[in-house]
Amino acid sequence: MAISALIFSSCSEPVIQELSREELFTLKLGKMEDQIDLFLYDGNLPNLKTSVFMRDGLFYIASGNSSKMMEFSSYGDLIFLLYNPERNPEPVSLIVKGDQEANSTRMAVSYPFNNIGSLAVDSQKRIYIEDEVPADRQIKDKELSVMLNRLIYRFDRYGKFIDFIGQEGVGGTPFCYIESIQITEADELVVICRSMAKWLIFWFSSAGKLLYEVEIDQEHLPLPEEEAIPSLSKIFADLKDPV
Q1: For residues 235 and 121, what is the distance between their CA atoms, to the nearest angstrom?
Q2: Closest Cα to residue 29, out of 3, 50, 56?
């Protein structure tokens, strides 16, 4: 019976389960603390990143145009804001940290971001935000012909700055262009960078120590056919069982 059932199931057409769409909440366009800034400026679309990350039913959205990070509940309620006060109005629906001594469940914390990009959150609710360093700290990499001008800033769940991570680890040299940042199940940080010549992957422990560094250039991509031109558009880390 077991064999016949197996044969029957193998001959039947596969059933594709369709995922139903459920609209949880919407975001309005604007400059307020619970809005996202995607406006046209001088007739041009904003060229800064807008990143979205979800963990444990919470939604984190980093808006490069506004230099802020918003945390929403699954119902769309804004519960935390990390923002640059020079590029955003004073929050009206959240308690600004410093106004009261007691911790609030709905709080806003200011930080002088420049041009934020990718975003990630680990299991301890530590927040990782990519940001551009000031011009006087940027470095020209002559070998790669790129500017090293991006760092990963870490904050605790209450918006307190912890440290920043560069190529060598905590306090390290800035990265070049960051394609994405990813967090493994062990809270290890993976920073995926890209230059014109190659991909550069930096893998850090949860404490910010550099564990692995990998470079992938065009010559080392797999070539399925002799006349084909290999290309690589995305890289994803193994979040469960890294080598």
Answers
A1: 19
A2: 50
pLDDT for 149-180, tens place per residue? 999 999 999 999 999 999 999 999 999 999 99
**Closest C-alpha to 176, from 126, 142, 210, 220:** 142
Pairing of strands 107-110, 95-96: parallel
For the residues of 92-123, what is the DSSP string, one character each? SSSEETTS-SS--SSEEEE---SS---EEE-T
Place of tokens 């399925």: 224
Q: Which among 105, 101, 65, 100 is positioned nearest to 81, based on CA atoms?
A: 105
Domain limits of the chain? 24-117
Q: Find, among 52, 73, 74, 55, the residue nearest to 63 by Cα.
A: 52
pTM: 0.83
Residue matched to tokens 């914390």: 109
In this structure, what are the phi and psi dihedrals at residue 62, rounded to the nearest 5 degrees? -105, 125
C-alpha distance from residue 40 to each of 3, 37, 127, 142 (Å): 63, 9, 29, 35
